[in-house]
Design brief:
Layout: H1 3-16, H2 30-48, H3 60-74, E1 78-82, E2 89-93, E3 102-108, E4 128-132, E5 138-141, E6 156-158, H4 166-182, E7 189-195, H5 205-211, H6 213-216, E8 220-223, E9 235-237, E10 239-240, E11 242-251, E12 257-258, H7 259-262, H8 269-278, H9 300-307, H10 313-320, H11 332-335, E13 340-348, E14 358-359, E15 362-371, H12 377-390, E16 394-396, H13 402-407, E17 411-416, E18 423-424, H14 431-442, E19 449-451, H15 460-467, E20 471-475, E21 489-491, H16 492-507
């Protein structure tokens, strides 16, 4: 009889008799994990082929939810959906497990919008397998190269949501498949919360949790999102920044004007906007708006942990293509603990792809602000509003009237999107010991990288608030996955290591 099924049955029997242990059941060896991964790859490719653009109209997210419902039910999960105005949120529970504690796992199945013309493949929704050549270029190869146990871990699947976040979903399902096949009983009761709106700040998740609070009740929350540490070591994160989007419009003439007839006479709103935005940061990349960083508190112990992450910053700079970083924090990890101010888009009527010899009627900056637990969206947005008015602008909530145009030389409008809150908990919280043990079990010989807070945003606080559970983010995808950009990808070696991390979490009792 195989070793692992026998031990799995032993652990299940001990649990049924009321015995508990802080030790994890043994994780299957590499050959078994690889075989389970290979078996899951066809489903992964099918899943990626269902468009999941978070902003697109139509039934794409419904189709993704239906696919998930079928995939989970096939594996024995009890599944229900929160309708969420046509964007179903999928909830699931794995029945029959009699563990003392319950862990809720959060993942999301919506993806970022795409510009298909930018992708180096026929379609972002037609996933392809690529191999890097000696010249550093990626070439499409036959997916059959994945369908063998000795597949090259450096191969990558390219496609929208391959890493963010359908890849982790499939890793989780593959880990469950392997445990079922090997007869390994979970050491925790498993619940799933699969979000359809993470990329738009999860507006429906609060209602879904409120309506299904009893179903989602848990002792801990694990979020699988975001990139793992560039070293490849398993990564545990104890917080995340929030997000506030802003649209700043600077008004010019009532209609676009001929630049020859009116140049040197009518002020150009694009120049006014450029001056205004440029004044918000200095040459070192630090925000100049008074008070922007004044609420940030990073202890000496936090700084020690941040420095211990061991980032190869020279390699990071080479990978992203910069000579020097901004000087907000003393290192990469520390820089992510501060609120940010980012221009994510600039436009003006008649400027850019539709350039014309005109003075535009308005210029627009799309901004995102990454908030922190100590620097909230209302606080930072208030500072930005004050700064714009101090620069001489009259802020309006509407298109200027003729009277206002005659009265105010500088006019702008600042519109706020729906914010997503930041989340942070102490790094000495009890959940830390569990996640360290779990990840060390899943990844023998590799102590996890501990990170105070990641720079990206997930709806942690929206879940933790009503459910009142400790949380941790366990990031599993490759750091260079092009998340949110074109040519998004997932390295197959990370698929394997992600499965190992998830197996560790599923087979380690929660204290």
């Amino acid at each position: 009889m195989a070793r692992f099924p026998t031990l799995g049955v032993v652990f299940a029997c001990l649990s049924a008799l009321g015995f508990s242990s802080t030790y994890a059941a043994p994780v299957p060896d590499e050959a078994r994990i690889r075989a389970a991964a290979v078996a899951s790859f066809p489903e992964y490719l099918d899943f990626l082929a269902i468009p999941d653009d978070a902003l697109a109209e139509g039934d794409g997210l419904k189709k993704n939810a239906a696919w998930l419902r079928a995939a989970l039910q096939k594996r024995g999960f009890e599944v229900r959906e929160a309708p969420n105005k046509g964007r179903p949120i999928v909830l699931a529970s794995y029945p029959g497990t009699k563990a003392k504690k319950t862990v809720l796992f959060y993942l999301h199945f919506d993806g970022q919008p795409v510009n298909a013309a930018q992708w180096s493949q026929p379609s972002p929704w037609q996933p392809v397998l690529k191999k890097k050549g000696a010249d550093g270029k990626w070439t499409i190869v036959d997916t059959q190269q994945l369908m063998r146990p000795d597949f090259d871990p450096e191969l990558r699947i390219f496609g929208r949501a391959s890493s963010d976040d359908k890849g982790p979903i499939m890793m989780f399902l593959a880990a469950v498949d392997l445990m079922r096949k090997e007869g390994i009983a979970p050491a925790v009761n498993i619940k799933l919360l699969l979000d359809s709106e993470e990329e738009i700040n999860s507006p429906g998740i609060g209602t879904a949790i409120e309506q299904n609070a009893a179903f989602l009740k848990a002792d801990a929350l694990v979020i699988h999102d975001g990139p793992a540490h560039a070293s490849g070591r398993p990564t545990a994160v104890f917080g995340n920044r929030g997000l506030q989007t802003l649209t700043l419009t600077v008004f010019g003439p009532k209609a676009p004007l001929h630049s020859g007839h009116f140049g040197n006479y009518v002020p150009n709103p694009a120049f006014n906007l450029a001056r205004l935005m440029a004044s918000m940061k200095d040459e070192q990349g630090r925000v100049t708006i008074p008070g922007y960083y004044s609420h940030v508190r990073i202890s000496a112990a936090d700084k020690k942990i941040l420095a211990s992450a061991g980032d190869d910053e020279a390699a990071i700079r080479r990978r992203v293509g910069i000579a020097a970083p901004e000087q907000v924090g003393s290192n990469y990890q520390e820089s992510l603990q501060y609120p940010s101010l980012n221009i994510r888009g600039l436009s003006a009527a008649g400027v850019g792809q539709s350039a014309a010899n005109i003075i535009p009627k308005e210029a627009i900056a799309e901004i995102d602000v990454r908030t922190t637990a100590d620097s909230t969206a209302p606080y930072l947005t208030g500072l930005i509003r004050n700064y714009v008015t101090q620069r001489g602008y009259t802020l309006l909530d509407h298109e200027p009237t003729d009277e206002e145009r005659q009265r105010y030389p500088l006019m702008a409008r600042l519109q706020e999107g729906r914010p997503a809150d930041a989340a942070l908990q102490p790094m000495d919280a009890p959940i830390r010991q569990w996640v360290e043990t779990s990840l060390a079990t899943g990844q023998p010989g590799g102590n996890p990288v501990l990170i105070r807070a990641q720079g990206g945003t997930v709806p942690t606080q929206e879940i933790v608030g009503p459910l009142k559970v400790p949380f941790v983010l366990v990031s599993v995808v490759n750091a260079d996955n092009n998340q949110h950009a074109y040519d998004e990808n997932l390295r197959m070696g990370n698929y394997l290591s992600g499965m190992r991390s998830m197996l560790g979490l599923l087979t380690t009792p929660f204290p």
